[in-house]
Design goal:
There is one protein chain. The protein has about 900 residues and is α+β, with helices and mostly antiparallel strands. The protein has 5 domains: about 110 residues, Immunoglobulins (Immunoglobulin-like); about 200 residues, Sandwich (Jelly Rolls); about 110 residues, Galactose-binding domain-like (Jelly Rolls, Sandwich); about 350 residues, Alpha/alpha barrel (Glycosyltransferase); about 110 residues, Maltose phosphorylase, domain 3 (Sandwich). Helices cover about 20% and strands about 30% of the residues. Strands 20, 21, 24, 25, 26, 27, 30, 31, 32 and 33 form a 10-stranded mixed beta sheet that branches. A hairpin with a 1-residue loop joins β35 and β36. α3 runs parallel beside α14. The protein starts with a strand and ends with a strand. Bound molecules: beta-D-glucopyranose.
Amino acid sequence: MQPLQVMQLTCEYRSNPVGIDVIQPRLSWKLVSERRNVKQNAYQIQVAAAPDLFDNQLIWDTGKVISDQSVHVVYEGAALESRTRYVYRIRVWSEHGQHSDWSETAYWETSLLTPSEWTADWITANIPRDPEQAEPIDMFRAAFQIDGQVSRAVIYATSLGLYELSLNGNRVGDALFTPGWTSYTSRLQYQTYPVTELLKDGGNALGMMVADGWYKGNLGWQKQRNCYGSERAVLLQLHITYEDGSEQIIKTGDNWKASEGPIRMSELYHGETYDARLEQNGWDTWDYDDSGWSGTNVREHSKEILIAQENNPARIVERLQPIELIRTPAGETVLDMGQNMVGWMHISVEGEAGRTITIQHAEVLDKEGNFYTGNLRSAKQTNVYICKGEGVETYEPRFTFQGFRYVKLEGYPGEPKLEQFTGCVITTDLETTGHFECSHPLINQLQHNIEWGQIGNFLDVPTDCPQRDERLGWTGDAQVFIRTAAFNRNVAPFFTKWVRDLKADQFRDGGVPHVIPDVLPQDTHSSSAWGDAAVICPWTVYLSYGDKRLLAEQYDSMKSWVDYIHSQGDNTYLWNSGFHFGDWLGLDAKENSYKGATPSDLIASAFYAYSTSLLAQTARVLGKSSDAATYESLYSKIKEQFRNEFVSPAGRLCAATQTAHVLALMFDLVEGEQKKRIVRTLVELIEENSFHLTTGFVGTPYLCHVLSDNGQHDIALKLVLQESYPSWLYPVTQGATTMWEHWDGVKADGSFWSDNMNSFNHYAYGAIGDWLYQVVAGLDTDHQSTGYKHIKIRPRVGQGFEYAKASLESMYGMIRSGWERTEHGEWIVSITIPANTTAEVHLQDARLETLLESGRSIFEAEGIYTRQQSADGVTITLGSGSYQFTANQ
Ligand code: BGC
């Protein structure tokens, strides 16, 4: 291996992206070296139109730039052109004077950079429709001729509704639920598909299926339809470049034909009905006779709102086989997938023409073991397949998804065999970055459940749940979970897209809708801890990926949220008015209420302080010093008012709830003796409850953090390892495979908490994940040097664990932090720090004199800058490399 290498080049977080419309994209790379303490001292980037032009025709050459920046370097070459591939390569010099070879060549390809390049027309099917009903989906087709040698062909496509594209009978790409869900009135994504290989000399045909989806299908529990419009439409351009340099554009227009087909109904919540007898074989091929098809109409719709795909696409990422065929006491035929999953079933069947097979999905069986759909509320989650009677037929839906572990079959001919069924797991296909594992099997299952909660609910937007008639981008859920999510997967593009939608849907006065994209009828908005997503989410992307550009872009949105709060109520420094969800689902709620006992104004004022402090830090990061000073001063005034209003001088909090104490501590609202008393009281409240939590959505994510940060790590461990209700592990002991919305979704006697609010795939309480990574395994980023440029490693040994380890593929490369206790009472801490980063490592209770690194005294170890003994252990700063520390406990 070369001593120093540059690898994994990315442009806007993606490897070789095709179809981006960022005018000045950012380039990132990773340094790889076997040596310790490797830092980049300089880099050089070259960009050209093709690899053979690097030597004589550069579009951008930075020359040797003295800088340690290897993440988010902004392209500053000549203005980019549309529909163009740019290749780039990078080399670096290290501080030791080593230099790398040029990296392998990577590329990015631009899409349509200006709206005027959209010359195609939006078209709709000329078929009479009732917008109030779920109706058959539309199929569009156009035949065209190719005459000459094609050098390259690329499609740009989007729709009002969800589309699937085909060319000459082949599905184009593997992205699902395109064009994705954005704030459709102001932002609509299009996708870019290179299709050179799919074209044929002579006659060709394009096909497009379009369903209602988020655009006009049923959304929300109030039976809304047509949230963005009442008519489906498509827009497409196929750019063909011939070897001789000439160009041809095939585009949607009123020469296209339209028809209905086998998909008789398709709804995100309710499922799909597919009548295979109505298939039109060859409908998307050249020689299909479309004389019986309807025409299409050109319609007006903005092209100014078109944006290239920002997020990774949704895809089938895994296929599961059912583990069991169950005959329930009620006589139902039910498949058990063994995992609560999101996606759909692929079935294979042999039945006579007209045989109707109903495939219904549910998350749990009831106490008696029967199929249970009560918690789905109005969502039908039912796919219907009608056989054509031509031997073995296979089916899976296209524009709907289900949240389920159990599948009820009706009408299936004969005895179903497990191998005839496959569960297709669908999610936004994000890079897996994190791994957490420990010696406690139930905690490992909890981590599994957190990950599956994320997989199931990150379907283009961060949803609350994937099964009932919601599946909406609830802001509160997203903000509590985002840090955990950013460990498990690379969520930067996912949240970049979503916070832009938040900004797009934000009210003029800075208020934030409860769900993003906003589809709720506006009776209320701007609840504390929900609307704060406007600030917390961009900040967390900055923390986790060092993404300053997103902070800058969102700054106005963040600021207007804080200014909105500032203008509420009758006290400038408290938030004591308006509607709030409160400590949602807290166990100290009054009977028949979802709102925990912590007063809303306390929660709202605490979050007011928190968002203000993050905004002040953001202003500092962006060099807006006058704003920073304004919000720093506002923050201290809110803090002061918070104490006046809610805390007695002796440190008694006005609300004797766990959540009130957690917030005061988490957001640094109290100090000195007051703080000590609040910590003590929190511990008492937990002890009085026999080491059980009572917190809801607001308090739960922070509970263990404040305990561990305030000298009560053992209490945090007791809570996390608690197996009886209410606790994180109670659902695990009940066989949960995802996170539950309620601590007692299924009670010990097998009965359910309730029908109307009982999701078994709700990631919010999965926010404990970031404590597992950050505290138990001890892996975190420094908040001043974000994106893991400077890493904080502080593993915590504690009762109940023999070992714990975490890894994170950061923007700089792989970080590992793990510890184990040996039989001889030693404590071994193993860490890996990627090149071009540094770390501060705290080794609890270690002594410098006896501390070893890879078997040698810590004083002899290579790569270490400083070592410091303090009362509670040793703190070391070090450079990149793998280290193994051994301490006597
Ligand atoms: C959702 C939550 C959401 C809440 C608002 C629920 O129906 O499922 O997760 O945050 O409403 O309080």
